[in-house]
Amino acid sequence: MRKFNWYLILIAIIAVLSACGTTEESEETEKRGGNAAEEAADERWEQIQDAGELVVGTSGTLIGASFYDEDDELTGYDVEVLREIAARLDLDVRFEIMGIDSMLPAVQSGRIDVAANDIEATDKRKEEFNFSEPYKYSYSTMAVRESDNSGIETLEDLEGKKAGGGATTIYSQIAEHFGAEVITYGNAPNEAYLSDISNARTDVVINDYYLTKFGVAAFPDFDLHLHPTLKFHPTEQAVVIPKDADQLTEEINRTLNEMREDGTLSELAVKFYEEDASVPPEGEIEEIDGLDL
C-alpha cells in the first residue's frame, strides 16, 4: 500500500514538472511571437531607411490637396505635408500617381509605403491599416447646379439622383446610403466630374468641403456652386500606413506633431485652402447615422 502511494506521488510530481515545462515553453513561444510581431512592425521603417526614400501614393487630381500647378509640378496640401515629413526624417520622397481605388491596395501590397490623398481615417479602414494623427479636419458638402441646386435641398433628396464619385470612397457610400446612383470615373480630373453636373449628365458630387470649394471656383463658367446650406459628416484626414508598421507610424506622428507645434501645418493649410484646415472647423455639422464606415 505504501509503495502504491509513493508511486502515485511520483506520477503527480512528474505531471507538475511537465506542466511547468509546458508553461515555460508556451511563455517562451509567446515571447518569441511578440518579438516577431515587433520585428515585422519595424521592418517597413528599416526598409525605408535603407532605401533613403519614402514612396507616397497620391492622385494628382485634387485641387488643394494633390494637383499639378501651372508649371506642371505636383503640389497641394497633402503633397507638401508629405514632402516636409520626408525632409524632417532625412528621406527623399517619391510620389506614385494612381486612382483612389488603387491606392489602399497599393499600401497593402507594398507597392507604396504610405498614401496621402485627403483620405478619411474611418473605423473600418483602421482594421486594415495604421493611420497617422490627423493633419486635416473637415466635413462633407456637395457641388450642385447653381440654377436649381440640382433639386437637392436635404440629404434625403439624393434619392434617385446621379452622383459622380470613386467606387470605394466614403462620399460614394454616403450617396448610396441616401439612394443615389453612383457614376464612377476612375482617376479623372475635377473638370470631368464638375462639367457633367453642369451639363446635367449627373446631378451632384459629394466631397470634402475644401476640395469642393476650390474645384467649383476653378470652373466659373459652369452652372455650378457649393451647396449653400448642407454641411454634414465631419471628417479627419490622415496618412495611410501599412497595418502594424508601428515604428513608421510613430516616426510620422512625431514629425506631424513637430509641424503642428511650430506652425508649419497651419501655414501649409492656409496656403492651399485659404483657411486653417489643420484644426477642426467651427459651426454645426450634421452627423449621418447608419453609415458602415
In helices, the fraction of residues equals 40-55%
User: How many E strands?
Assistant: 14
The whole-angstrom Rg is 26 Å
Low-confidence stretches: 1-38
Structural class: alpha/beta
The CATH C-level name of the largest domain is: Alpha Beta
Specify the biggest β-sheet. 4 strands, antiparallel
Approximately what portion of the residues adopt beta-strand conformation? 15-25%
Order of helices and strands: HEEEEHEHEHEEEHEHEHEEEHH
Please give the CATH architecture of the largest domain.
Answer: 3-Layer(aba) Sandwich
Mean pLDDT: 87
End-to-end Cα distance? 70 Å
General shape: globular
CATH superfamily of the largest domain: Periplasmic binding protein-like II
Question: How would you describe this protein?
Answer:
By secondary structure, the protein is α/β, with parallel strands linked by helices. The chain has two domains: 47-135 and 238-262, Periplasmic binding protein-like II (D-Maltodextrin-Binding Protein, domain 2, 3-Layer(aba) Sandwich); 138-234, 3-Layer(aba) Sandwich (D-Maltodextrin-Binding Protein, domain 2), CATH 3.40.190.10. It has helices spanning 2-51, 77-88, 100-109, 123-126, 170-177, 190-198, 209-217, 246-261, 264-273, and strands at residues 53-58, 61-62, 66-68, 74-75, 92-97, 114-115, 129-131, 136-144, 162-165, 181-184, 205-208, 225-226, 232-237, 240-242. The strands form five sheets. Strands 8, 11, 12 and 13 form a four-stranded antiparallel beta sheet that branches. Strand 3 and strand 4 (74-75) form a beta hairpin. The protein starts with a helix and ends in a 20-residue tail after the last helix. The relative contact order is 0.16.
